[in-house]
Amino acid sequence: MDTDTVGGGHGSAAQRWAARSALAAGAAALVVLLVSAGLRSIALVALWVGGLAVGAAGVWWALSRRGLVRAIGFTLAAAAPAVVLALCVVAGLLWEMLVSAALWALAVWVGRIALRGDGKPSRTQESSTTPPVRAFLIMNPRSGGGKVVRFGLKEKAEALGADVLLLPADHQEDVVELARRAVADGADLLGVAGGDGTQALVAGVAAEHGVPFMVIPAGTRNHFALDLGLDREDPSTSLDALTDGVELRIDLGFVGDRAFVNNASFGAYAAVVQSPAYRDDKIRIIMQMLPDLLTHQAGPRLVVHAGDVTIDEPQGVLVSNNPYRVDDLVGLGRRDRLDSGFLGVLGIQVDNAAQAAGMLRGKNASGLTVLTTHELVVDADEPEVQVGVDGEALTLPTPVRCGIRPRALRVRVPRNRPGLPLSKPPMDWRRLRTLALTMGRVAVGTGAGSKGAGR
């Protein structure tokens, strides 16, 4: 009988077999190279790594330089992978390299499944609630290319008893003041159909007054809705929260006294989005501004203090309301939880091509800082800094203090919603080997203790 060892952390039979399969696939990837290329396989692996490093360095030169050097950077970034493939073809080992790479990818994929545990995602606790009596919803008809009109959100919400205010075309209305006035008039739920920037402003009012907040993903990207597990394809399904909803208590981030639901960014990106021409010609403005921003010839020099950690002169800092996934490429830009009570911090500091190539090491790169904290301070050598808060461009006086208020926001969501995709843990080959070598067995000691306790 193959069962889990109680409390032993040895995993289920399915996990153990997945771990063995992952190790077998990894070994097969190495065997394919060694059998087909012998000692040349070492040179081939070094060639691939070198090609990636040269490509990364080329990207750095393309972004941080102008003129001839930028052209060389673009050429290297494009040519490095092609040269590596060509050399593999000349050596007659292209198929072997591709098969080995596929086996290695399979090993990592199956290994993460094995390490994932029992497959139950950590979820924010839900609580049952009664429908609101006076729901007040603010809708932006221009957001997301006109989703409010396309999905008939105003009519559907009013049919469910909600009061709906459509923002005018000039968008001169102060949504914060509108939300506060609605609460003063007796609204027992606030909601927004629009982008994340508007969501954050009204969410701050809802948290301030302790009333529930409802998210209707009618913006362009709807990152907040994604992490709440809402249906971003059909925003009208979020209106089910008005009649059959549950409540989540989640954290709310603050930059100064401004609330944010997703993140606040400092540095190069925040400076670029401040440009009046950015929305009309993004690529041209980015390529025009980045060289000076990345080489510290323009913009403030930032210093970030988070507990005992100091990040000196980063080109970019992202402060998020709960940490983003960084180990799962599929899950980049997603948060597994919104109630951990921690800010996520991602700082990037790259000053030359060698450091750019080192970014291939991921979390272990010297130019990358990944941490969590309850609060941090962003200072600069200038009296003001540009900040991108949930996609909205702001200028704030330094130093800028960021913090998090745990479980400050009551969010009303539909009882039935798509939910979050399950994340995979980072690869840990040592733990995987331990899991694979563990034989299933009945926890005799625990079982005996249980029998004795029942006598």
Task: Kindly describe this structure.
With 455 residues, this protein is an alpha+beta fold. The chain is 40% helix and 22% strand. It has 14 helices and 17 strands. The model is unreliable at 1-8 and 441-455 (pLDDT under 50).
Write the layout of secondary structure elements.
Blueprint: H1 13-37, H2 40-64, H3 67-90, H4 94-115, E1 126-128, E2 135-139, H5 147-150, H6 153-159, E3 163-166, H7 175-184, E4 189-194, H8 196-209, E5 213-217, H9 223-227, E6 245-255, E7 258-260, E8 263-267, H10 268-273, H11 282-294, E9 302-306, E10 309-312, E11 316-321, E12 343-348, H12 353-358, E13 368-373, E14 375-380, E15 384-389, E16 392-397, E17 400-414, H13 429-437, H14 444-453
Parallel strand pairs: 2-3, 2-4, 4-5, 5-17
Antiparallel strand pairs: 1-6, 6-7, 6-17, 8-11, 8-15, 9-10, 9-14, 11-12, 12-13, 14-17, 15-16
